Amino acid sequence: MKRNRQTLAIGVLVGLVIWGGCAAADDASPAMNVEVVATRSHDPRAFTQGLEIDGDVLYEGTGLSGASSVRATNRFTGEQLARVDLPAPYFGEGLTLAGDKLWQLTWQDHTAFARDPNTLAEIGRASYAGEGWGLCTRAGRLVMSDGTDTLTFRDPVTFAPTGSIRLTSHQNARLNELDCAEDGSVYANDWPSDNILRIDPDSGQVLAQINAAGLLPRPLIPNGEDTLNGIAQIPGTDRFLLAGKNWPTTFEVRFVPA
């Protein structure tokens, strides 16, 4: 019996060592930095929660109760094409274009708004449990974050949940704004840090960790939030648009090896 206990203890110890080694390997995702290619002016009153680019149009969702909005602008000229403000107490969050709908999340209001992508007029609503943070569209389904290390998949028409996956590493991450990139991966702001995680949404593996610190001197607002938030791939390129809450500037960047 004593020998069996010793054997069991050794087996457990070996298992812990192997598990720890695998976890360390998972956490050792490639490190990357940002290379700034261009900058654009940005409304410093916009509490940016989500970005999406469709052709010449840049969609932006902003937050704060009583100050939330969704905006469509010409991404080259900055001309505002449409804007809708959310009534209080709605607190706007991430957004994404899915077919003929532009979905917009709210933070703790358990409501997603479906909008006409041209006028931004509301064309429907859906309810969901938990918090809404980030949203993007990949392979015919929505990918949603809720401030944890788990991504939830949803039907793009009904908004019903269809599955979920948890990160295999970085399990203290608080996934915020999302971008479903053309290579099939999901890029996520890790709130409240300046890190962006590149994620395989099929496996939950973190493929890279991107350090986006130093884009702007901070704090921008005394006792206010000015975190990095907002990421959208520029279609057909290897470049991304990055924004932040109340930032006066957006940044067109490439992700390069550290």
Automatic annotation (TrEMBL):
Classification via InterPro entries: QCT (IPR007788), Quino_amine_DH_bsu (IPR011044), WD40/YVTN_repeat-like_dom_sf (IPR015943)
Residues of the signal peptide: 1-24
A Pfam family recorded for this sequence: Glu_cyclase_2
Record flagged with keyword ATP-binding: no
Keyword tags: Signal, Transferase
SUPFAM superfamilies: YVTN repeat-like/Quinoprotein amine dehydrogenase
GO molecular function annotations of the record: glutaminyl-peptide cyclotransferase activity
Cross-referenced PANTHER family: GLUTAMINYL-PEPTIDE CYCLOTRANSFERASE
Record-given protein name: Glutaminyl-peptide cyclotransferase
